[in-house]
Amino acid sequence: MPLTAMMKPSPKSRSELAPLLAFGAHPDDIEFGCGGVIAKETRAGRAAHFVTCSRGEAASHGTPKQRVAESKKSAALLGATVEFVEFNGDAHLEVRAAHAIKLAGLIRRAKPGIVLAPSLVENQHPDHAKLGQFVRDACRLARYGGIKELRRAQSHAIEQLIYYAVTAEAEPANITPVLIDVSAPDVLKAWTSAMEAHASQMSARNYVELQLTRARLRGLRAGTGHVIALFPNDPLILDSLAHMSRGARRF
Amino acid sequence: MPLTAMMKPSPKSRSELAPLLAFGAHPDDIEFGCGGVIAKETRAGRAAHFVTCSRGEAASHGTPKQRVAESKKSAALLGATVEFVEFNGDAHLEVRAAHAIKLAGLIRRAKPGIVLAPSLVENQHPDHAKLGQFVRDACRLARYGGIKELRRAQSHAIEQLIYYAVTAEAEPANITPVLIDVSAPDVLKAWTSAMEAHASQMSARNYVELQLTRARLRGLRAGTGHVIALFPNDPLILDSLAHMSRGARRF
Amino acid sequence: MPLTAMMKPSPKSRSELAPLLAFGAHPDDIEFGCGGVIAKETRAGRAAHFVTCSRGEAASHGTPKQRVAESKKSAALLGATVEFVEFNGDAHLEVRAAHAIKLAGLIRRAKPGIVLAPSLVENQHPDHAKLGQFVRDACRLARYGGIKELRRAQSHAIEQLIYYAVTAEAEPANITPVLIDVSAPDVLKAWTSAMEAHASQMSARNYVELQLTRARLRGLRAGTGHVIALFPNDPLILDSLAHMSRGARRF
Amino acid sequence: MPLTAMMKPSPKSRSELAPLLAFGAHPDDIEFGCGGVIAKETRAGRAAHFVTCSRGEAASHGTPKQRVAESKKSAALLGATVEFVEFNGDAHLEVRAAHAIKLAGLIRRAKPGIVLAPSLVENQHPDHAKLGQFVRDACRLARYGGIKELRRAQSHAIEQLIYYAVTAEAEPANITPVLIDVSAPDVLKAWTSAMEAHASQMSARNYVELQLTRARLRGLRAGTGHVIALFPNDPLILDSLAHMSRGARRF
Amino acid sequence: MPLTAMMKPSPKSRSELAPLLAFGAHPDDIEFGCGGVIAKETRAGRAAHFVTCSRGEAASHGTPKQRVAESKKSAALLGATVEFVEFNGDAHLEVRAAHAIKLAGLIRRAKPGIVLAPSLVENQHPDHAKLGQFVRDACRLARYGGIKELRRAQSHAIEQLIYYAVTAEAEPANITPVLIDVSAPDVLKAWTSAMEAHASQMSARNYVELQLTRARLRGLRAGTGHVIALFPNDPLILDSLAHMSRGARRF
Amino acid sequence: MPLTAMMKPSPKSRSELAPLLAFGAHPDDIEFGCGGVIAKETRAGRAAHFVTCSRGEAASHGTPKQRVAESKKSAALLGATVEFVEFNGDAHLEVRAAHAIKLAGLIRRAKPGIVLAPSLVENQHPDHAKLGQFVRDACRLARYGGIKELRRAQSHAIEQLIYYAVTAEAEPANITPVLIDVSAPDVLKAWTSAMEAHASQMSARNYVELQLTRARLRGLRAGTGHVIALFPNDPLILDSLAHMSRGARRF
To answer: Whole-angstrom Cα distance, residue C231 to residue C173?
Structure first.
């Protein structure tokens, strides 16, 4: 019996898995940046909820109505639910205290263990890094007891804030990534389908090929199929070296 | 039943844990740098072996004979075995291909999963970074099939190379650490005893207080007791976000 | 007569020491981040004034009224005065030009030599880095002659802007720190008392132990008692190598 | 009476200034890299000694005999003495333990407070970084009591190791510099003369103009005349914020 | 016939050179930061247009009216045109979505190939980095088809965004510079004249000497006269190694 | 007529292109790391010569005799010549002055403009970074007039030293890459064939797929086919912004 098998949570633990909350600036960001991880987690029994902060109305392709429909279909393919929250609209995000407080309220309502947000690297779509910044702030504010706008919701401490990179350029250079293997055929298929569900975005650039090539390169480097890199906001505490025994290099 | 408890390997898996191989430049480096992690791993059933590359004969205090005796006592307190290998002596280490090949031979013999080595940060005792460098090289050479000096030993691929930092200055700035909680009373006690077993080194500087203060500061930051930071040579592949749910920050 | 003693300003120079101006986002930030340095400077005859930009009303513990009272008591223990300036309130700070101009006005009034501000590291309480950013801007604006909001106050050029880190995570990785020894018993005692004066914050986390452990670790590394790290915004110009003769490493 | 004046060591302290020991790979490295600082220190009463590790025999211009003569003349102009030590010759330096031990012996003999060495940046003349590396190692070995080759010399703990950059490319990016003002006319003149004393090197490239332009640019940025940047191996411990009051930026 | 000569665009290509669009926060920023490059490009037949985002009304010297007149004269000396756009005024810039959208509209109108903007380094005049940030955002928004405020202007994809550094402190450490030789006498003269045209700024600090010293130091390092460093937002794609054959180091 | 076409050297310039000299530690390193660039350059008329520093005798697959034969075939497919130089053998490289001097002699003989070497990143096969280090040193030594071992060969100044990365892990983080488009069908085919010519290495890992995936990911990010990243040792001097007009991001 291999060690990694032994490490997996047993079936009865599924109900105890705290839900995952993922934030995206545009209807397809979460799917393109880390959809394979979402598919893997929901298949393992974890609830996943998406909060999307625009309807993609500044993009060159797709109407807001189409984008919302595509987004709901895509989230369903990943086993997740999705809701839309407005912050002045696509291409209009700003880092404002009120935005962070509003997201903190959503965190208090969803009570997630892990929060996923776009990375803070600034050389990407301006909305991505800005959203990442106020999600990070929101994770802290969710715990503080005295914020008057949030007094009706019980304060909540998340476990970890983890960044995903919508594009290769958005991968932070100052955080060692943690890699998640998404090679299982059903996971890879769900991820691909979820990306393709954003049909209005398929005409322009090779977005799906780009993401699969990124994941394949990580996979080839690690001697496996496809791998997605995530970037934790803070160092991990692991209970044992056993969890450190698989690395991105094949010695 | 908490999730972290469920993640622990079950007792019957102990025999399957690949042994841990730790390298040190001087008789007390492993103990001071990551003794608490060793204690925790051996208590969890993993075999640990130390390879020490000098008898500390350049130090201001302690004879080589004393240092070897202290080292054996200390390793035993941590549940580990120890052997001594010479590379021209204390304060005389150099980065040489022959040294890496010699260590690769030891790796082939011990067949470890995880290898621990001093960090590569150069602003520390010159022997530490130099040893780290040729341990890293040795981990690769252990796998290559055509090295003539090693032809009699079967090639071996380790799982991960992980660095420890003998001092705070030796913590690499370019690797996000992974934290191991060593707060359990028996672990902390074994670590402290193992450090104190190097009695000849106790006269000069507050080495034990220094290490415990380092670990306590990491622990306070993470909301627990004592924590040791390790630095993997390559990114980790984790099987699930469940292993990422405990972070160094208390949100 | 030791050299460091000779370097100290003589008593009659005290009246010539330009006052120190320290900015904090919350009532206890200055004390926790660099209270020991303040105590040392005021004991050496330098005037110190704190500008605190909220009453801590978003915190889980303590009312604004309590916080202000604690803050005044704490500042007095450090030999400093304190005033409160509002920028939309605790957890509501934003980087706005008007905020920087307002602080520039305070700088023109106080005419400090050295300004202390929270570090710019973003992975900390959102108010800290934001305040640091507009203090930095304010230090520049204080000198510019044409800012219309400030025309009634004479422009003022500070000597140095120095950052303190409220927590270990907030220590900037891209600035080599400068260390200040705060081991003198009266200094250490004043610092500890000033932190404990924030009684409403003592219930939750081990904040005082955390700061003293940070300072003790720095002290142990340098072969002394307790040390606080500061981070100058710009390189220092020193008049002689004599001032460089004490370093953080004991060779 | 200005504060900086008060900080200066008084004349009677001169005898107490520990000597300065500077290492160079080639006959003109110290002069080009930090000659102005040497001139300022010797004028303040500090003894300075140069150890040069080749006779420049690999250079395109100048014979070893000429280079030694130029070097002696140049050192004298700076108020320093010079000796030559061989490590296989110009362009043949290697990082060897025996070299570090040999230099450690020289350190034990000279008993310096401050040691100056070429920076560790690798993208410069190969001898420079290699020498910097074994000077750093030597500074540690000088203190260790048990090194058999050095048993006849009393161990010595230096105060600080400080790097100079022979060229702009050699300035380390990971150490915040400390700036020394060398604008005083006699200091600037001594430095210029010392560089020009290396007459055999004047034909090829504009070395003197290069160094003066570097120092002038640093000076212009700081609002003064000429400034040389130095790079301490370890953070400075300063006794007071008074020493931090002059910075590289004119606010 | 030297290779670099062969690489130059032939005269008939001039009409095909896409115009250059440069943004500055204050009337003299572009000239001081990269005026020599502008002069060189306009002499090679490229059209250049400046957008200046204040009239310098917060500066200690010069009235807005004077500054505008100086700016027009200076731009003409460089062969460029200039227009003024207001964003709340000098020392009042903020990173706002509306500002980026407004600049995106200017980009759509001017249809530049290359856009020049002040670098993003934060430790400089607060307006510089803030402008750089929203120029970067604007370059992306100029291409997006659905931004409602911009619907009347055709979307435009620029070729490259390149940063200039107004001061040495503003040079980004995380981008390898690309160097442009501005040693040709007419280029150097045009640049110097353009800087001196800002007569109101000449009284205070040695700004012209500072810029020429910066460029001379870069030139000396590369074995030529004067050189200006630019910092591309994204890696260059070059068609051949032939374009890489001249480097900043003289081997 | 597009600008990039105009920039290309005209056919008659081919004889004037200085030859390219590429160094590899093992028989397939150059091909895997930058074979597409070699193919493109030789097709443009530049001579290319490979110096390989082992026969791959430490690898798990292929005899030295096979490796040499494969190497010659592969070089021919790229339009290059190849020679073998021994430095103690595969997996036995060390950074020694004598090695750098030996390579400097080869540089003097070949008189290249551009030199290609494996990157200096240490976390790769130990031979790669070590070879990169002494190639860098060799490029400098080739110019120095007084090195006695090289007196019979005329000194030679190369134009640029450029690193290639054999694997993705070997890409330097501190140098902004320069990208070369290798999408032309004949170039891509020549590169693929050259990699496949190392038939003995095809059995074990997906090396060809790995390299093509790396190049495809770079290509997708830049909106083209396949792209190889190179890393210049020193900043480029470009003659015009025209050469900077194509970037790695499609705005």
So the answer is: 10
| One pLDDT digit (tens) per residue for chain F, 251 residues | 233 333 333 443 444 689 999 999 999 999 999 999 999 999 999 999 999 999 999 998 999 999 999 999 999 999 999 999 999 999 999 999 999 999 999 999 999 999 999 999 999 999 999 999 999 999 999 999 999 999 999 999 999 999 999 999 999 999 999 999 999 999 999 999 999 999 999 876 799 999 999 999 999 999 999 999 999 999 999 988 988 888 888 77
F244, F238 in Cβ contact below 8 A? yes
Contact, E61 vs E90, CB < 8 A?
no
Length of chain A: 251
Which three-class secondary structure state does DSSP give residue F171?
coil
How many whole angstroms separate alpha carbon F117 and alpha carbon F231?
Answer: 10
If you measure CA to CA, which chain B residue comes closest to D149? B58
- Is residue B131 within 8 A of residue B51, CB to CB? The reply is no
Strand partners, D82: D50
Distance CA F16, CA E3 (A): 8
Q: Residue B177: exposed, middle, or buried by beta-carbon count in 10 A (0-12, 13-18, 19+)? A: buried
Q: Number of C-alpha atoms within 13 angstroms, CB side, residue C60?
A: 16
| Strands annotated E in A32-186 | 48-52, 80-84, 114-118, 160-164, 178-181
Q: Is A137's CB within 8 Å of C126's CB?
A: yes
Tell me the residue length of chain F.
Answer: 251
* Distance in Å, alpha carbon of E118 to nearest chain F alpha carbon: 16
Cβ-defined contact of A169 to F223 (cutoff 8 Å): no
Distance from the first to the final alpha carbon of chain D:
22
User: Which of A164, A182, A239 to mutate to test binding with chain B, by most B CBs within 10 Å of its CB?
Assistant: A239
**Local structure of D188: helix, strand or coil:** helix
Tokens encoding C117 = 């501000």
Please give the full DSSP string across D19-73, using - where no structure is assigned: PEEEEESSTTHHHHHHHHHHHHHHHTT--EEEEE----TTSSS--HHHHHHHHHH
- Please choose, from the candidates D95, D91, D94, D96, the residue with its C-alpha nearest in 3D space to the C-alpha of residue D125: D91
- Kindly list the partner chains of chain B, i.e. chains with 3 or more CB atom pairs below 8 Å: A, C, D, F
3-state secondary structure chain B: CCHHHHHCCCHHHHHHCCCEEEEECCCCHHHHHHHHHHHHHHHCCCCEEEEECCCCCCCCCCCHHHHHHHHHHHHHHCCEEEEECCCCCCCCCCCCHHHHHHHHHHHHHHCCCEEEEECCCCCCCHHHHHHHHHHHHHHHHCCCCCCHHHCCCCCCCCCEEEEECCCHHHCCCCCCCEEEECCCHHHHHHHHHHHHCCHHHCCCCCHHHHHHHHHHHHHHHHCCCCEEEEEECCCEEECCHHHHCCECCCC
Type of residue found at D232: P
* F-chain residues near D122 (CB < 8 A): 120, 133, 136
Interface test with F, best of E17, E238, E246, E250 (most F CBs within 10 A): E238
- Inter-chain residue contact A60 with E144, CB threshold 8 Å: yes
Q: Kindly report the nearest CA distance between residue C47 and chain D, in angstroms.
A: 12
Q: Which neighbouring-strand residues pair with D23?
A: D51
* Structure-token pair, residue F177: 């890459």
Helix, strand or coil for residue A199? helix
What CA–CA distance (Å, rounded) separates C160 from D249?
Answer: 8
Interface contact flag, A221 F169, Cβ < 8 Å? yes
Across the interface, which of D236, D242, D244 has its CB nearest the CB of C246? D236
Residue E23's beta-bridge partner residues? E51
Partner residue facing A221 (CB), from F168, F221, F249: F168
Q: What is the ipTM of this complex?
A: 0.92
Q: What length does chain C have? A: 251
Of D236, D172, E148, whose CA–CA distance to C181 is shortest? D236
Cβ pair B237:A247 closer than 8 A: yes
Provide the H-helix boundaries in F90-178.
97-110, 126-141
